[in-house]
Write a structure and sequence with these properties.
Elements lengths: L3 H31 L6 H13 L1 H19 L10 H23 L6 H36 L7 H4 L15 H6 L5
Bound molecules: fe (ii) ion (2 copies).
Length: 185
């Protein structure tokens, strides 16, 4: 049977696939704004609310627990890991800024288009690079640690929190985002 740690890594990779889909939608909105069109700001507001309630609040904290263990157990695999938590904080800060911009627009405020394009582009770029780093390097290190020694991670604080869009498919609050997702194959 697959250990819970392997199962957890599988879930984190699944989260990345979902976040990549959502980032594509956000990037498309930024491109529209760059061309002078009005993107669906209510959709963008839902995207940023999603990023706050799931990736920032559940996905990144779970990873922080795993990376802390990796640093503790395997100094030889820990290079650069001290930067991950602050990178998660940076992602939350950039996301919070974008969410505030967009919620203000939905509430009727004028937004400088170039500001939205810059903030959204910066956010998409940063989060994509972060996920690539994890997939290509950090998750591989965690796999090596698990190959050498089976371990479990205590993520009980977050385990019960499901992804509201991709797992629970709760429409309330995420209607536009859910109807904008590409069909599943
Ligand atoms: Fe991360
Ligand atoms: Fe991640």
């Amino acid at each position: 049977m697959e250990s819970e740690a392997r199962e957890l890594l599988k879930e984190l990779r699944e989260d990345h696939r979902n976040m990549a889909i959502v980032l594509d939608l956000l990037e498309a909105a930024a491109k529209q704004a760059y061309k002078g069109e009005d993107p669906d700001f209510e959709l963008v507001a839902e995207i940023m609310r999603y990023m706050t309630v799931y990736p920032d609040a559940v996905h990144h904290p779970k990873e922080d627990i795993i990376y802390a263990r990796l640093r503790e157990e395997r100094e030889d695999l820990a290079e650069g890991l001290e930067d991950v938590t602050s990178d998660h904080e940076m992602i939350a800060t950039l996301g919070g800024r974008l969410r505030d911009d967009v919620e203000a627009v939905v509430a009727g405020a004028a937004l400088r288009r170039d500001l939205f394009v810059d903030d959204a582009t910066r956010y998409v770029k940063h989060l994509r690079a972060h996920m690539t780093w994890e997939e290509d390097d950090l998750f591989e290190r965690v796999e090596s640690m698990l190959d050498a020694e089976p371990l479990d991670f205590d993520v009980s604080e977050y385990e019960h929190i499901k992804d509201p869009v991709f797992e629970l498919e709760i429409e309330a609050g995420f209607k536009r985002l859910m109807s904008s997702l590409p069909p599943t194959s």
